[in-house]
Specification:
The protein is mainly α. The chain is built from 28 helices and six strands. The protein has a four-stranded mixed beta sheet.
């Protein structure tokens, strides 16, 4: 039977244990990613755009203005839905290091330092759960499991500076609040963590709702636990309002579905008022309490339905043009359900969280009193995270992180059992089974070694990512040529548009960000249409150049669906006479043309 052992929050012994693991893992990540670091090869176009946003901020763009003015510059720019919260640590590191290293080296350092700081925060918060509730061995195992979980390491590795890593930290901070001895302190931590997560990305809303549902169940189980929920909702409302004013200001008070807006703050405030009043009148009959919960949640939902019903029916992507939806949105694999992923990716996102959920249930069954309630609540949150990840694959990183502490306990149990096995063959089999649990793709890797031909026959839905990494599209090799040209708009596929913005002073019609829906459609429709139609569209728009990397997936996709289209002509070398080639660097697939006037 497990007993409660909540220890000091951050003692030296704990920080040393996790710090050693973090240092080793960080060194390995830097070594593995050294080529990408030295060549500025970002893992995702969003990371490129993030650094562009930070550059614009440091160059004098308003803190409250997150518009990307070089995307659809002819139309006034594209308003981004991103938060300055994520820009802040990058900007601070760059500002601090620039006097000593120069701007370029300071930026390069920030691309490594900030993600590894995020990794350290995630490892500490995950391992802290094991440290306070399980044991020393489980603490070390938790830190190592975080490093073995591919979805987590991808979001927290060098060059990965987009907002996903900070979302993981916020999720873990909220769960840590469930362990607090003080209901007021725990509630404040939970509310502030969830508010920060939502300010960074509204994607955290489903799991935030689950956490508050768990807090409501605690209140129903024990009326004394009401302090935790009341404190949490008050903290959520207050922190959300503060962060909105601090990062958005009063310049844009419109309601958006893809970012926290005044409507969301009003919903949180309404819930806080109702639950605060409810807590003041305790003890009250159970029916009245449940009715109060219904009023808090139902009233907030009614506000949303009245003021922004589109946010309930489809969210920020509901208004995408059908062409943008079919040729861009459904190809953003990380945003698709897990059954749209390859088997390899699906295993990485599913196996670790499911084993962690099983372990959390076992921990609840073997514990008593407060600890049993905690692990029961933890299992509910983890189970909800798994369900969310089934619908949106990138959310699997949150589920993997939450699974780490209970999985560490399960791993310790397995290793203890293996030590009692005397016969060598069963022991080896058990160790292989444990390895497969920690590395779900190990059987597929072994199968690939045994049957490489058959393994290569299975087309992976993530071949887009593989081809992107293997492409010879080295735009940076031609950056001097590009910057010597007169500034103008470069018509380019969505995936390479951020790199063009990053390396040059030119503009592009659109990047792969949904608020630029109109010009995203223009890019796609032009690629699919005839070269004559493309000429008319680009001349009307005033685009000065055309760029393409034929070996990337996006133009290949256009050419597949429109074999006589503009993108197909450029890929096959059927260059229309209204385009004048511009010489680019050798040993790169990047091609550039100047649009000739009529």
């Amino acid at each position: 039977m497990l007993v409660e052992r909540r220890r000091t929050a951050f003692p030296t012994a704990f920080l040393t244990r996790v710090g050693v693991a973090w240092a080793i893992i960080s060194a390995l990540l830097i070594l593995v990613n050294w080529g990408a670091i030295t060549t500025w090869r970002f893992p995702d176009p969003d990371d490129t755009m993030r650094l562009i946003q930070v550059r614009d901020l440091l160059a004098g763009q308003s803190w409250f203005d997150v518009t990307q003015y070089r995307a659809d510059a002819l139309g006034g720019g594209v308003p981004m839905h991103w938060s300055r919260i994520v820009d802040l640590p990058l900007a601070l590191v760059i500002l601090a290091l620039t006097p000593f290293l120069g701007t370029a080296s300071a930026e390069a350092a920030a691309l490594v330092i900030v993600p590894l700081i995020t990794l350290a925060a995630a490892m500490i918060l995950a391992a802290r759960i094991a440290w306070r509730l399980l044991g020393d061995q489980e603490t070390t195992f938790t830190a190592l499991i975080v490093a073995l979980c591919v979805p987590v390491v991808f979001q927290l590795g060098p060059m990965r500076i987009d907002h996903h890593g900070w979302q993981l930290v916020c999720a873990l901070a909220a769960v840590n609040g469930l362990m607090a001895r003080s209901g007021v302190t725990g509630g404040r931590v939970i509310g502030a963590s969830l508010a920060t997560w939502l300010a960074i990305s509204i994607e955290g809303l489903p799991l935030a709702a689950v956490v508050f549902a768990v807090l409501a169940l605690r209140w129903l189980r024990d009326r004394r636990e009401r302090v935790l929920l009341v404190s949490a909702i008050q903290s959520l409302a207050l922190t959300s309002a503060t962060l909105f004013l601090a990062t958005r200001g009063f310049g844009d008070l419109a309601t958006y579905c893809d970012a926290v807006s005044p409507l969301h703050v009003a919903m949180f405030a309404f819930g806080a008022v109702v639950l605060t009043i409810l807590g003041r009148f305790e003890p009250i009959p159970l029916a009245m309490l449940i009715g109060g919960f219904g009023l808090a949640g139902g009233g907030a939902l009614a506000l949303m339905l009245y003021a922004a019903p589109q946010c309930v029916t489809g969210g920020g992507f509901s208004e995408l043009d059908p062409l943008v939806h079919d040729f861009w949105y459904i190809d953003v694999r990380e945003g698709m359900p897990v059954w749209h992923q390859s088997l390899k990716v699906a295993l990485q996102y599913a196996i670790t969280p499911l084993i962690g959920l099983f372990a959390a249930i076992q921990l609840a069954a073997r514990s008593q009193d407060w600890l049993r309630a905690f692990w029961r609540d933890y299992a509910m949150v983890l189970g909800a995270a798994i369900l969310v990840s089934l619908l949106v694959a990138r959310a699997g990183a949150v589920a993997c992180l939450l699974a780490a502490p209970p999985l560490a306990w399960q791993l310790n149990q397995w290793l203890r059992g293996i030590r009692t096995i005397e016969r060598p063959l069963p022991r080896v089999g058990a160790m292989l089974a444990v390895a497969c649990a920690l590395l779900p793709t190990l059987p597929l890797a072994l199968a690939g070694l045994i049957m490489p031909a058959r393994a290569s026959e299975a087309a992976s839905p993530l071949q887009h990512v593989v081809q992107l990494k293997m492409s010879d599209c080295r735009i940076e090799a031609s950056s001097d040529i590009l910057n010597a040209l007169k500034p103008g708009e470069i018509y380019a596929p969505l995936d390479i548009a951020p790199k063009l913005l990053f390396l040059t002073h030119h503009s592009v019609p659109a990047t792969g960000h949904h608020r630029g829906n109109g010009t995203m459609r223009l890019v796609i429709a032009t690629a699919l249409g005839s070269s004559d139609d493309a000429r008319a569209a680009l001349l009307e728009r005033g685009s000065r150049y055309v760029a393409i990397c034929p070996d990337l997936v996006e133009p290949q996709n256009y050419a597949f669906h429109a074999k006589d289209g503009f993108a197909a002509d450029l890929r096959e070398g059927r260059t229309p006479d209204w385009l004048q080639p511009v010489a680019t660097a050798e040993n790169t697939s990047f091609k550039l043309w100047r649009v000739l006037p009529e």
